[in-house]
Amino acid sequence: MPLIRTRGVILKSQKWGDADRIVTIFSPNLGKIRGAARGARRMKTRFGGVLEPFGVVDLTLFQKTPESLGQISQIDLVMSYASIREDLTVMTAAARMVKMVEAITVDRDPNPGMYATLVHGLESLRPDSDVALAALLFQIHVLGHTGFRPQFDSCTECGKVGHDQRPQWFSPRLGGVVCQECSQQGVGRILSLSKGSVAFIEQARRLSMPNLSRLKATGSVRVEVETAMDAYFYAVVGKSLPTFEQWVS
Ligand SMILES: [Zn+2]
User: Fold this and answer.
1) Which member of 35, 96, 141, 207 has the lowest number of beta carbons within 10 Å of its beta carbon?
2) What was the pLDDT predicted at 217?
3) How many whole angstroms separate alpha carbon 45 and alpha carbon 58?
4) Are 51 and 10 in contact (CB under 8 A)?
5) Cα(166) to centroid of ligand 1, in Å?
6) Which CATH homologous superfamily contains domain 3-80?
């Protein structure tokens, strides 16, 4: 079917050639798709200013074969989330969200649950809220919509169920917690992950996106979970996410 009509969130909009853009869109029923917007960077263009990341659009794409790069014939803005761009911290949180989805998905793999999570995540970003926490909770949820769900109920290496009081360790490479013995036996880099941090992650996974704003993480739990999730994400996709610190100095 060469003509595609779908709704989606713009994950990325890259310059291409002298006047064009390549737009990457995440659609609920088609997954990640790419299309060329011809002449998008000319003064007068039918695409207007609708090709910016984070926007929800309705799109018409012509594609000769599923493998070829599609041509965007029409794109209409449904929701711009323009306020995201008014605050650098909010924009970093949004950039983390779209980058996670872009990096962790393959083309044409529909994932309606992940789409709903992304839209909810973008909607939850308000300048007066803890947007770094919102991005972290999104990160935990988005992994649950993939085959990369980290394992916390037993040691990822030996399978032992840990119900003693010894510290827990997290292996980004193995994608889960490891027991004390395995942590000392060459499972690669390991990070401290206390029972409180594991409990926080499990609670975040259980709550639906609209109820997540009730959840708070402070002190060492916050630092541990952020460090573990970012290290795990890097181990899975080989890419780092934009950091909040880069705007601070
Ligand atoms: Zn073990």
Assistant:
1) 207
2) 86
3) 17
4) yes
5) 12
6) Nucleic acid-binding proteins (2.40.50.140)
